[in-house]
Amino acid sequence: MEQDLPGAGEQVLLVGLGNPGPRYAGNRHNVGSLVLDELAARIGGKFKAHKGGAEVLEGHLAGRRVVLAKPRSFMNLSGGPVSGTARFYKIPPSGVVVIHDELDIPYGALRLKLGGGDNGHNGLRSITKSLGTKDYYRVRFGVGRPPGRMDPADFVLKDFSTVERRELALNLDRCADAVEELVGKGLTAAQNTFHVG
User: How many folded domains does the chain comprise?
Assistant: First the structure.
């Protein structure tokens, strides 16, 4: 299933969405960035500022060359850094994997897909606009719905709850495993392994 692999045979750009700066570091909205930290630890190396507008780390994952990228912009403006970094490394949209928070999935559950809408996620909307296509991979990390009448925009800008934090390291690790499987074995294999819960 060669077409099932992101950027079949070439480099893959792994993007972890979040907002820059310590104030946002533990927010639900920053879960993509947290997963990238876990992947960086597996690769071994440090992120460096890149002229494309992201912090990047080059390495190997699942036997493939990958570029890890954390946009230095705020979430709603992620598109510029993502498309700029993809252009620099000559990675087509089919080789881009975006890891992000997802309100419509229970906390800790994972869903992987290729293409689709942005589901109200401004980071995805910005990336789709800048890449000029919806056809890039998404690894969606469930953060659940806000309690009561809390505005979803406020909810994603809050840190994980005490209860959620107990499982957070495990969930981030599992999400990093899902990204590795996607890169190494393709979308169908990763979905079959991780679409539980």
Answer: 1
User: In what order do the strands lie in the sheet containing 110-114?
Assistant: 48-49, 54-61, 64-71, 12-16, 96-102, 137-142, 110-114
Q: Which of 29, 50, 100, 121 is catalytic?
A: 29
In a domain, 45, yes or no: yes
Give tens-digit pLDDT for 7-19: 866 899 999 999 9
Annotated binding site for tRNA: 24, 74, 76, 122
- Active-site residue 50, yes or no? no
Q: Which two tokens stand for residue 22?
A: 């310590």
- Give the domain CATH number at 100: 3.40.50.1470
CA distances from 16 to 69, 72, 75, 163, 172 (A): 6, 11, 10, 24, 12
Residue 65 in tokens: 């060359």
pTM of the model: 0.95
- Could you list the residue range(s) of the whole structural domain that residue 13 is in? 9-194
In a domain, 25, yes or no: yes
User: Annotated binding residues, as ranges?
Assistant: 24, 74, 76, 122
Q: What is the average per-residue pLDDT within 129-157?
A: 95
